Structures are given as structure tokens and as C-alpha cells.
Amino acid sequence: DNVDVIFIEAVHPEHNTLAAYGWIKKGQKRCRKTNRGRGRLSLHGAINAESMDMTVIESATINRDSTTQLLEIPDHKYFYAKEIVIILDNARYHYSKEVMALVEQSPRLKLVFLPPYSPELNLIERVWHFFKKKVLYNKYYEGLGKFREASIEFFRNIAQHQDELASLLSGGFEGHCT
Known about the structure:
Blueprint: E1 3-11, E2 43-48, E3 54-58, H1 64-77, E4 83-88, H2 97-105, E5 109-113, H3 124-136, H4 144-156, H5 162-169
């Protein structure tokens, strides 16, 4: 009782057109605008498994500093919780001295590491996929600034996708019943 479960993970969407689907008649060509360069964003996110409350921060790079910054947010945001279980992958920076020191300072934070190579167990991976579908697939953004704006706008207004996200996030972890 009174435990919040938070999944965290990073995503690095690239500023380029991501062809996802479409139809074209045989023998015809379809031109698609693309961007030069390899600009990308580094987003670090956390999602509450029960309330679906989401926190996303942008960082120059994903490392121990962005991880500690992200972990401080649920520690303050869920002040009422007796315990906050953070589920995360085995990225090296998740084991850094700084991250472990933060966890030691807050007895409410408990880290649970997923098995290696198991992104399907991390709930936030579903959100990243949904984000890419809504913001990246078959979309062209003139510059990195426009791309960043569209990405940030998506997360600012994520509540408008509440029904779709609830359906997407509400299952798939259960075993089969006989």
C-alpha cells in the first residue's frame, strides 16, 4: 500500500523523416523531404505505472547527471508515497556513484533493474513508440528547432492522448490463465 511504481528510460529521436507507412502505385515515384545532418534530441522520461503521470526532461546527453535529475522529480512529486519503486534498465550510468548516493539519501527510492535486453518489460518503451508514431512517422520538420518544438508540444499535451495511451499501457504483462 502507498507504493508508486515508476518506469524510466531515455529515447533519442533523430531529426529526419521516418518513413513508416504509405501507398504508392507500381511504377510511380514518391519524393519525400529529408534533412541533412544527424541532429537528435535526448529525452529522459518517467511514467507512473498506475496513474500514467509522465515526466520528461531534455538533456544534452543521457548520463548519470540526467538520471539523478530525473530521479529527484518523483522523489518530490510523490511526496505522499511511502515507497517509490523505480524500474530501469542496466545502462552503466544507472549504477553510477551519483545515482546510488541519491538513492541512499532517499530511503523511499528503490531501484529494480530489468533483465538485460528486455525493453518489452519497460512500460515507458510503449510511450516512446507512441510518441514516434504521432510525432515522427511520415513527418518532415524544416529545422531541428521545429522538430524539438513538435516533440515538446506532444509531451505538454499528452493528456489529449489519454484514451489511446490508457489502452496501450494497460496490458500485456499478464500471464495466460487456464
